[in-house]
Q: What sequence folds into this?
């Protein structure tokens, strides 16, 4: 059994981590996974969901920073109109304008190479593994269908939950090969009272170390603490301030839903 920590991220968390990495040259969850000699697990639906939703997330972040910049600039101009010189408050606003301008500019540039970042740092990195190989895909799909059919968690409705069930069945498969798994999602289908739903936790095998995080900030702090001696470990406040992604809802799985070497038409 593999004794390295395996990180499995839901699509929403991936999008947060990707956006943060594009905005910040320092806080990159994926590079920390590589430096800490851990593993990143990819489910059969991860790649498709990230590539479909990333443009929308980038656009929403760009628009957010554009509006913030407009507000900060107006505020700065109002201060300048009422004082003969820039006082301390105006300097603070000016710094915010510069920061927002830089974030907006960087995102506007980075969205053009965001797809390449996903392939280099998420899908094809040396620390990335596919949780479900070709021989197991059909079985995972069948088990996921059963969860949807009988309304078993993480399925909560028969219309939209196949992707969530594929995620969970992929985790259950990974639990046979890894003794230390970290799962992160903000999807309420998996959550009860801010923790992994107890019905799902009861399905996990005995002896498995399984940690759950609801946001990318705590997840990033966890992998940071696994960095070896000599590697720079960024403080909590820097990680928190860098994680400024504006969340957005995900689009549903497109039709047909195609997995390598196995075509599966999921009809809503």
A:
């Amino acid at each position: 059994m593999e004794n390295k920590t395996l990180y499995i991220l839901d699509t929403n968390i991936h999008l947060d981590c990707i956006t943060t990495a594009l905005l910040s040259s320092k806080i990159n969850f994926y590079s920390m996974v590589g430096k800490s000699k851990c593993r990143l697990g990819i489910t059969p639906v991860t790649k498709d969901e990230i590539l479909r939703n990333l443009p929308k997330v980038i656009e929403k972040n760009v628009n957010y920073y554009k509006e913030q910049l407009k507000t900060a600039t107006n505020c700065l101009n109002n201060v300048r109109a009422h004082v003969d010189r820039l006082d301390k408050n105006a300097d603070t606003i000016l710094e915010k304008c510069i920061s927002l301008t830089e974030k907006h500019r960087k995102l506007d540039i980075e969205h053009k190479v965001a797809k390449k970042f996903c392939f280099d740092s998420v899908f094809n990195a040396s620390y990335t593994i596919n949780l479900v190989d070709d021989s197991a895909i059909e079985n995972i799909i069948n088990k996921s269908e059963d969860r949807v059919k009988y309304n078993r968690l993480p399925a909560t409705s028969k219309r939209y939950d196949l992707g969530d069930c594929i995620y969970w069945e992929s985790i259950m498969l990974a639990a046979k090969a890894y003794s230390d798994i970290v799962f992160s999602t903000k999807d309420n289908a998996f959550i009860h009272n801010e923790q992994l739903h107890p019905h799902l936790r009861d399905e996990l095998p005995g002896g498995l170390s399984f940690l759950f995080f609801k946001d990318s900030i705590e997840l990033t702090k966890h992998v940071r603490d696994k960095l070896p001696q000599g590697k720079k470990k960024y403080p909590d406040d820097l990680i928190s301030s860098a994680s400024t992604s504006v969340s957005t809802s995900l689009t549903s799985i497109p039709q047909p839903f195609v997995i390598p070497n196995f075509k599966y038409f999921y009809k809503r």
Summary: DSSP finds ten helices and nine strands in the chain. Strands lie at 6-9, 39-42, 128-130, 180-184, 191-192, 195-196, 209-213, 257-259, 262-264.
